[in-house]
Write a structure and sequence with these properties.
The protein has 17 helices and 10 strands. The chain is of the alpha/beta class and 381 residues long. The protein has a 7-stranded parallel β-sheet with strand order 2-3-4-5-6-7-8. It has a 3-stranded parallel β-sheet with strand order 9-1-10, covered by helices on one side. Helix 4 crosses helix 12 (279-293) and helix 10 (204-216) packs parallel to helix 11 (233-250). It is globular. Residues 330-342 and 372-381 have low confidence and may be disordered.
Length: 381
């Protein structure tokens, strides 16, 4: 049981009262939470908020991630995935046949896929029509399979290549089969930091604008924050507040994914205090604060690829309610240094959830039941 006296001693009495009453936290509240020395106290508050939304449910998806290319024009300092050109060592671009054969193999036998997750670099030579053709082919291959693809960064890139608006790019992709967008590319919204870590990438205002355009067309999106690099706690809280403000306006963010910066293969070098075993506690603290600050975004993901399976399981007690899915093949996090598995089976995912004390609930890309096609809040509780 949450102890009001203890939260008062921690200097969090106002936050405690707001959380229990279901009221919105302020920027200063977010800073106070990040400054709290007792991470378990944050976890208890986040667990209260998470249970109010989802009770004991933890969601997962049977999905196939396809990283179609790592050739990218953005050259982000932190990214170990990208290559500048096709001739660079380790560069790859899948062709249409490769992509369809991967999907066909993944969907050949039960459990059949509930999501195709399609994301990669901003390739300088692949036109929008190349992706439209692939999406239409996927719909022929499996008409019921939801296509989740791209981030606002890719949408801005396509608009530049095509000489058209980002809204028109989104309309074309929706017509080709896009139903959901991934949330990457947000990194950290502070522009001074963006100039240091991702100077060529679409800026924060553009990322938020394109998200709103997608929402206006009925395309749901995820959202992210890359943390644990050069940012301060104030930068993190600012990022969360901007996402919350955008959600108030356009309402289309389905899930927030806090992404820990993986240092092993990055060109971005961090000070010593940002490294070491304390990173696990920082990851759990960030999950908890995210759940408490983002009162209008339904789901918080413990992305097991980036967190590792043990921290992801623990994060379920710190406000997270989703583990992502089977994945099958993932390159971006692993090229950055992730040492997690390349994929998990449904049996392994459900065991992770049950062993953590929760109830597994299978979903699709839009957090709907793949069997009934209805929203999880309509069929789970």
């Amino acid at each position: 049981m949450l102890d009001a006296t203890y939260y008062d001693r921690l200097g969090l009495s106002s936050v405690y009262d707001k959380v229990l009453a279901g009221r919105r936290l302020s920027f200063d509240d977010g800073l106070a939470l990040f400054g709290c020395p007792d991470v378990t106290a944050l976890g208890a508050l986040a667990m209260h908020a998470r249970s109010r939304l989802h009770r004991d449910a933890v969601f997962y998806v049977v999905n196939r991630q396809i990283n179609y290319t790592n050739v990218c024009v953005n050259d982000c300092v932190f990214c170990a995935f990208h290559r500048d050109r096709e001739s660079d060592p380790g560069a790859f671009t899948l062709d249409r046949g490769d992509i369809l054969s991967r999907l066909r193999a993944a969907d050949l036998s039960p459990p059949h896929l509930d999501e195709m997750h399609f994301v990669g670099g901003c390739h300088p030579d692949l036109p929008l029509s190349w992706f439209e053709d692939i999406f239409r082919a996927v719909r022929v291959l499996n008409p019921r399979l939801p296509i989740k693809a791209f981030t606002p960064v890719e949408i801005a890139h396509f608009a530049n290549l095509e000489g058209t608006s980002t809204l028109e790019v989104l309309r074309r992709l929706k017509a080709a089969g896009l139903v959901m967008m991934a949330g990457g590319g947000a990194e950290i919204f502070d522009e001074t930091l963006r100039r240091q870590i991702c100077p060529r990438k679409a800026d924060a205002a553009t990322w938020l604008r394109i998200s709103a355009e997608a929402h206006s067309l009925g395309i749901k999106t995820n959202c992210t924050m890359l943390f644990g690099h050069l940012e301060t706690f104030a930068h993190r809280v600012d990022h969360l507040c901007r996402l919350r403000e955008q959600q108030d306006k356009s309402g289309g963010f389905t899930c927030f994914i806090p992404l820990p910066f993986l240092t092993e293969n990055s060109a971005l070098r961090l000070p010593e205090e940002k490294l070491g075993p304390q990173r696990g506690l920082d990851q759990l603290r960030t999950v908890a604060v995210s759940r408490l600050m983002l009162d209008n975004i339904p789901h918080i993901k413990a992305y097991w690829i980036m967190l590792g399976q043990k921290i992801a399981q623990t994060a379920l007690w710190f406000g997270a309610d989703d583990l992502d899915g089977t994945i099958i093949e993932e390159h971006i996090g692993h090229m950055a240094g992730a040492d997690s598995s390349q994929g998990l089976t449904v049996t392994e995912l459900e065991a992770m959830i049950r062993d953590s004390g929760f109830r597994p609930v299978r979903r699709n890309a839009m957090f709907e039941s793949p069997a009934a096609g209805t929203a999880e809040t309509e069929h789970v509780f």
